[in-house]
Write a structure and sequence with these properties.
This protein is of the alpha+beta class. The chain has one helix and 32 strands. The N terminus is likely disordered.
């Protein structure tokens, strides 16, 4: 019994000790779990910081990629814009009934085809958008923005149109000498009479407006050319007039906006320094820039102050001026050349009179014009295409007769000929 009791006592002691150890181990595990639980927020804070660093790095990588792509794109555009092409392919070709004495003019992003029998608006796909028939002996066309006018010089009819079609027509009792049109469709015309000349105005429907300029050679002179500003606020007119038996020249600016309503005769500027220098053309480039083309040079005017136009600069040429052409943004001049081996000199200016570039040229030409920011010089069988910096983009022969060339994109052009219209892709 004593031994048994001792045995049980020893067993109880062992179990007690075992329970204490197990309880101690359990308590230690619970303490560790509690410590881990208490440390968990610190691990979350570290994770957030790592996540933020990752996101910042990703944004930097994306920004770097965008900048790199932009740089690559800029280099591509620059190289494409300055690329010189050696040949071309015909993308499509369509028949074109040109008719007798057909002429062309840029209009919007497309072109006009007109002759004595009518006028048509043709899009970049060679499709006729609209057509207006008429009978004119000497049709002339002027455009500004989305509006244009065709009139019979020395005749009595005119049609005003937009890119959508004819908006109106007008008949006159006096012969038409010159016409001009503004960007909203208002038109003006010089009408000739035996004793006096008139400048009359028409809205886009062809209705004669209640304003007029009457001129006499013996007093204020005869108008020789006119140009409306694109917004229709101002009219520039060149005049010849008599002074003590001498024929002189001058330029007058009129204001037909609300600013000029209280000004006598709407006259806001007059420039008589031209004296015997012949004025060939007046032209508004923008609402605030105009130029006067004489037989010896070009004067550039600012009309920022609509009640006080100002002469801002002049250029003169020693050689004879052969051609002057504008597109309401740029002005080009081709003169004879005094250099051996060169036939002509080409000058291009912006509307404020800044020279953009000057190049010699030898190609015989029949057309010189701007189409967008591209300069096109061509004849019936060859052409030179330059960008506005003067770089040659294409120079060479064309395999078919050319009457009109129109810019579509840096490497695509519409070419109209005697009986075909084609879209060319430079290569």
């Amino acid at each position: 019994m004593g031994n048994s009791n001792d045995y049980f006592r020893e067993r109880q002691k062992r179990n007690l000790r075992k329970g204490i150890i197990e309880n101690k181990n359990l308590t230690d595990e619970e303490d560790e779990l509690e410590e881990e639980y208490e440390e968990e927020p610190e691990r979350e804070d570290g994770y957030d910081k790592s996540l933020k660093r990752h996101r910042r790095l990703r944004r930097l990588i994306l920004m770097g990629a965008v900048i790199a792509l932009a740089a690559i794109g800029a280099v591509f555009i620059f190289r494409r814009g300055s690329r010189q092409y050696a040949t071309y392919q015909v993308m499509w070709e369509k028949d074109l009934a040109e008719g007798n004495l057909t002429e062309y003019a840029d209009f919007g992003d497309n072109m006009l085809k007109f002759n004595r029998d009518g006028i048509s608006y043709i899009n970049r796909n060679g499709e006729t958008v609209w057509t207006q028939g008429y009978e004119m002996k000497s049709p002339v066309v002027e455009t500004c923005g989305d509006f244009g006018i065709v009139a019979d010089r020395r005749g009595y009819t005119m049609y005003i149109f937009s890119t959508e079609g004819i908006t109106g027509s007008a008949g006159t009792t006096l012969p038409i000498s010159r016409v001009t049109i503004a960007g909203q469709g208002m038109a003006a015309a010089i009408l000739e009479d035996t004793e006096a000349n008139y400048i009359r105005f028409f809205d886009k429907s062809g209705r004669q407006m209640d304003m007029e300029v009457r001129t006499l050679l013996s007093s204020n002179g005869y108008p020789t050319d006119i140009s409306l500003s694109p917004n229709g606020h101002l009219l520039a007119a060149s005049y010849v007039y008599l002074n003590q038996g001498t024929i002189l020249n001058k330029v007058i600016f009129y204001n037909y906006s609300s600013v000029g309503k209280d000004v006598q005769d709407k006259l806001v500027g007059g420039f008589e320094h031209y004296k015997e220098t012949m004025i060939g053309q007046v032209e508004f480039m923008t609402d605030t820039e105009a130029c006067v083309i004489t037989d010896g040079g070009i004067d550039f005017y600012s009309t920022k102050n609509e009640t006080s136009p100002a002469l801002k600069g002049s250029v003169t040429f020693e050689s004879e001026i052969r051609s002057v052409f504008t597109n309401k943004k740029y002005l080009g001049v081709i003169t004879d050349s005094n250099e051996n081996g060169q036939a002509y000199e080409l000058y291009v200016y912006n509307g404020s009179g800044t020279l953009l570039f000057h190049r010699p040229m030898n190609m015989r030409y029949t057309h010189a014009e701007f189409s967008g920011d591209t300069l096109l010089i061509y004849n019936e069988s060859e052409c030179t295409i330059r960008d506005i910096k003067g770089n040659v983009k294409y120079q060479g022969a064309l395999d078919k007769s050319l009457s009109k060339l129109v810019y579509v994109s840096d490497d695509q052009y519409i070419a109209a000929g005697a009986d075909k219209i084609r879209r060319l892709k430079l290569e």
